[in-house]
Amino acid sequence: MDCYIFLSFILGIPLLWPCHKAAENYKTEKVKQPVGSHLRVKRGWVWNHFFVPEEMNTTRHLIGRLRSDLDNGNNSFQYKLLGAGAGNIFDIDDNTGDIYANQKLDREEQSLYILRAQVIDTTTGRAVEPESEFVIRVLDINDNEPKFLDEPYEAMVPEMSPEGTFVIQVTASDADDPASGNNARLLYSLLQGQAYFSVEPTTGIIRVSSKMDRELQDEYWIIIQAKDMIGQHGALSGTASVLIKLSDINDNKPIFKDSFYRLTVSESAPAGKTIGKITAYDNDIGENAEMDYLIEDDDSQTFDIITDNETQEGIVTLKKEVDFEQQSHYSIRAKVRNRHVEEDLRNYHVEASSTFIKVQVEDVDEPPVFLFPYYVFQVFEGNPNGSFIGIVSAIDLDQRKSPIRYSITRSKVFSVHDNGTVINTDQLDREISAWYNLSVTATERDNVQQISSVPVYVQVLDINDHAPEFSQYYETYVCENAEYGQIIQTISAVDRDESVEDHHFYFNLSVEDTSNSSFIIIDNQGFIFFMLALKQRRKQTLFPEKSEEFRANIFRYDDEGGGEEDTEAFDMVELRHSATKREQKARKTTRFEIQSLHRQSLQVGPDSAVFRKFILEKLEEANTDPCAPPFDSLQTYAFEGTGSLAGSLSSLGSEVTEQDENFDYLNDLGPRFKRLAYIFGSSVQSNK
Fold this sequence. Notes:
The chain is mainly beta. 9% of the residues lie in helices and 33% in strands.
């Protein structure tokens, strides 16, 4: 069955036309759909949009009507409204299908509502047609004025900017619908500041309309207005304030406050001393007011001017010392100019401001002056007291030429005569002090207040007055089975005297030890290190048949590999963490005594007395033990500094029995321990 919907404005203007049924006779009739009606047909219902203006003055007003073509007017159909807003914002007449708005609608809060409608047959309680959606749109009216959201505005533009220079762009917003006529179309205008600025009506861009001088006025307040409806009658408006500041440009040159300055300087003033200040002013600010002063017409090159960066004053200084007797006054000219001037502003700085300065020199009694700024003397060590060192000389440059008296302060080694002769009063030893820094004072006899001093440097030259000395005390230990020619100690010597080249020493045994000694000394021709070697064997080994084997073991104990960085020679992990223990024959001294002494050495270090006692005890023990091999005399391996995680290779750290003695772990330490593993492995097999 066909159905229709009737929609109308509350103002009485038809919005949508009836369809499928003529309103007069309810007969089925196909009608042409009007252009722009946007009807949508769904299961006999024709749905579309309802439109209602916002801010309607009536509290309850009709929006439109829903009507089914099945409704014959016997009040058996009931219309229902569903969805957000149904029942509070909107309601429907159950019998007629008229839809009402119960309150004012604000498009800026919500512009559309989506509702659902349904028709129920009251006789059966069933829906005549499935429910469908429709939309109620709120139409915009011009009820919001433009607003400047970012006010107050502040901008800056350089002074003297030409007409049309961009200053700032301000923007207002209108909450009304921009698609609804001219409600949100804005125009900008100036209410204040038209003499210096202008605004583009549609963009809100503010521009300079005339040049402005910051030195006359440095900021301007303007008021800008925005109107909606493109300024037509009934338009709403909003205003904003804009603070425009003028930034400085360097359009002013510095000028001296005075055209003439008079300054004085004492002839005793040192170079660099300040003798006065001159001042210029600049109407610009900041970097544009920074200035530099310079001296002109000063052929003597006696004065200089520097700028105080804090006060921008010119500080006149003495470039070199003046002498009243030579020149009593000076006339100079100074100029001032800006430090930073842009190329396009140089026309403001064509001619620099200048001033004249007259400097008067004041006469004073000056101290004596030495002929040289410093003196350097040389003298050989060992010279007797009173020896001549050198001569210093000073003169009085004043007209009266006062006699001079000399003195040396704070020195017990040197003194000076009245004629300036420096002598020594004590013995000089270069090895104690090779240089002396003295200060000789010259005083005028006619005016003791006039004093000057000069540095004097005395170098003590060397003579060969010291014999060579051994660099340390040597206490050497050697195994009784050491082989002839074995190196047991390297010695060196020093000489306290100075030498142009490296020292060359010659070593030899004393006369009484030359003919009756078991040792010889070998001179290596010119280097400071020399060596001792065994001259003959002192004692036969207890095991001559094994001497060659054990000697080889002893000679290779110094092969320690390349250190921790040598990862090729052996496995460092095994060396550090191996927990393998070795056993050997029982000794008279228990292992716990050895470990106790080893712990003592790790705590206090290899003290020479403890070390010597330990060696002698172990040597005696080895000599009295017929079963001990010769290499056991090298029991100094117990002293290994701060200890090693790998343990010691010496028999001192071995177990007290020889059962199950195993040296196979030496094969895991790398190729450099291959020889040692072979020797110990052979020894174990022979013992078994």
